[in-house]
Specification:
The chain has 332 residues and is mainly α. The strands form two sheets. It has a three-stranded parallel β-sheet. Strand 4, helix 8 and strand 5 form a beta-alpha-beta unit. The two termini are 40 Å apart. The mean pLDDT is 97. The chain binds adenosine-5'-triphosphate and magnesium ion.
Length: 332
């Protein structure tokens, strides 16, 4: 049994890209491994954000994850800022992280372009992410494709730390591996950038059936299909990527065939997709409605999760502090 860690920012509404690329996988993994999942609020403050709505967004994200199928009895779900060891290890790992690697990260380049004044926290974002995973000595990290570069850097940080502070082994930090799903990169509704909470190009996981159709109807498809008679290529169509997440294999085959032969128009294809999305998402939305009526209960789940996470984190930190040579405080 491996230990699994992954996180999601409360930077906006949980969307179908998050679900297909990561969260759906979390729901499966909780039955196979020891899993920790976190609402990573400390990451979300690296972009401009509204202080007053952060608590509610954090709670809503936890509700979305529980509604999607995370079970408190099968996994540890907690809020990142409730376990302060994340920030301590972040600082320690900063001292072995090469600056050049941080500057090379695609996500940093993209997100820094969107900000007038770039905070150091945005540059150091992947170091905090390394701390999140290494704190629990986790070896498996289920994420979307956009996180692969950060995972590579995380492994480099683990290697450098081990080489410097545990040169004779056993290694304190195992090198974590990413785990992708078949829908590892869902594009936004414009078909341009990846679907992102911070870009406003999303279909929310908890949207009503009507809203799903309103968003799906005008969504971008293969540009080769200019008219109803032009055949398309499902392999480059974002709507087909979403079909792969929500439609059964036989429907996927029919969709691909009808796209290649122009047997269907894009709207026909989207109608089938909408039906399948609605079938999957309606029970999730209903569970979310029930959870929203009991915010205290959700907060209790998060507190219990933080307590479990803290126990694991504290034991890693005791080892790390010793290995890095810090003077222990006197007992009395
Ligand atoms: P933000 O725009 O604030 O970065 P986000 O939508 O990228 O938000 P994150 O919280 O950064 O969401 O990522 C949560 C998880 O969802 C990560 O594992 C990430 O790889 C995955 N993910 C995010 N967007 C997509 C996408 N479009 N397709 C597949 N996986 C995705
Ligand atoms: Mg992101």
């Amino acid at each position: 049994m491996a230990r699994v860690f992954s996180g999601i920012q409360p930077s906006g509404e949980l969307h179908i890209g998050n679900y297909l690329g990561a969260v759906r996988n979390w729901v499966e993994l909780q039955h196979q491994h020891e899993c920790l999942f976190s609402v990573v609020d400390l990451h979300a403050i690296t972009q401009p954000y509204d202080v007053t709505t952060l608590p509610q967004r954090t709670l809503d994200m936890a509700i979305g994850l529980l509604a999607a199928g995370l079970l408190p009895e099968r996994c540890t779900l907690f809020v990142q800022s409730h376990v302060s060891d994340h920030t301590e290890l972040n600082w320690l790992l900063n001292t072995v992280t090469p600056l050049g690697e941080l500057e090379r990260q695609t996500q940093f380049k993209d997100k820094s372009q969107r900000q007038e004044s770039v905070p150091a926290g945005l540059l150091n974002y992947p170091v905090l992410q390394a701390a999140d995973v290494l704190l629990y000595q986790a070896t498996l990290v289920p994420v979307g494709e956009d996180q692969l570069q950060h995972l590579e850097l995380m492994r480099e940080i683990a290697r450098r730390w081990n080489a410097r502070f545990a040169p004779d082994g056993p290694f304190t930090f195992p090198e974590p591996q990413a785990q992708l799903t078949t829908s590892k990169r869902v594009l936004g509704l414009d078909g341009q950038a990846k679907m992102s909470k911070s870009l406003g190009n999303t279909i929310g996981l908890l949207e009503s059936s009507e809203a799903i159709w309103e968003k799906l109807r005008p969504a971008a498809t293969d540009p080769a299909r200019k008219t109803r008679k032009d055949p398309g290529n499902p392999d480059i169509c974002n709507i087909f990527t979403i079909h792969q997440g929500f439609s059964p294999p036989d429907v996927q085959r029919t969709v691909a065939q009808n796209c290649r032969t122009a047997g269907w128009g894009c709207l026909d294809c989207k109608k089938v997709l909408a039906d399948n999305m609605i079938a999957t998402l309606t029970p999730i939305r209903e569970r979310a409605t029930a959870l929203k009526s009991d915010p205290k209960g959700v907060r209790r789940i998060l507190s219990a999760g933080a307590a479990k996470a803290r126990a694991l984190a504290e034991s890693t930190m005791a080892l790390v502090r010793r290995q890095m040579g810090f003077l222990e405080p006197a007992e009395d």
